[in-house]
Amino acid sequence: MVAKKKVAVIKTVTKKKAVTKKAAVKKKAVVKKTATKKKAVTKKVAVKKTAKKKVAKKKSVPITYNKAQTINALAKSTELSKVDAEKILNAWSDFVIASLKNGDAVMLKGFGTFITRNQSARKINHPGTGEIVDVPAKRVPILKISKSFKESVK
């Protein structure tokens, strides 16, 4: 009787090797039976399952500077006091805002051009309530970066 069982086991294993992967996955019971009889079969199945797992990539977060950090960097690079650096930064931003309100463009060679664009009136969906809301026409500030600045960043 022992010899008959060995012959039967060998026949089932050879038949199951010929079965395609999809059929083996569908017949979980058949795979379990062969796994208990032969350890090599269980290792192959386990390797296939681990190969399908995906590893999540870590995303890098860019460093952003707030106004105080920008003032500190400006003061350090120009060897001015922090108070003077803050006055320069505030005067520059006030100048750009006043020029754009008048409809003028401010061009800083090697950096870019500050301009305004007219945005037409449109209807939008309010995300909180779902109502359709009319948005009036307005002027929007735009910064067009110069080519030399773009190339230096690359």
Task: Summarize this structure as a short list of keywords or feature phrases.
154 residues; alpha+beta; HU Protein, Chain A; 3-stranded antiparallel sheet; 55% helix
Explain this structure.
The protein is an alpha+beta fold. It has helices at 2-18, 21-26, 28-37, 39-51, 67-78, 82-101, 147-153, and strands at 106-108, 112-119, 122-125, 132-135, 138-145. Helix 1 packs across helix 3 and helix 3 crosses helix 4 (39-51).
Task: Compose a concise summary of this entry.
With 154 residues, the chain is an alpha+beta fold. The chain has seven helices and five strands; from the N terminus they run H-H-H-H-H-H-E-E-E-E-E-H.
Give the number of DSSP strands. Answer: 5
The CATH topology of the largest domain: HU Protein, Chain A
Q: Please provide the ordered H/E string of secondary-structure elements.
A: HHHHHHEEEEEH
Largest sheet: 3 strands, antiparallel
CATH class wording of the largest domain: Few Secondary Structures
Tally the helices: what do you get? 7
**Taking strands numbered 1, 2, ... along the chain, how are they ordered across the largest sheet?**
1-2-5
How many whole angstroms does the radius of gyration measure? 35 Å
Estimate what percentage of residues fall within beta strands. Answer: 15-25%
Helix content: 55-70%
Show unreliable segments: none
Mean pLDDT score, rounded?
Answer: 78
Instruction: Please give the oligomerization state of what you see.
Output: single chain
Shape field: extended
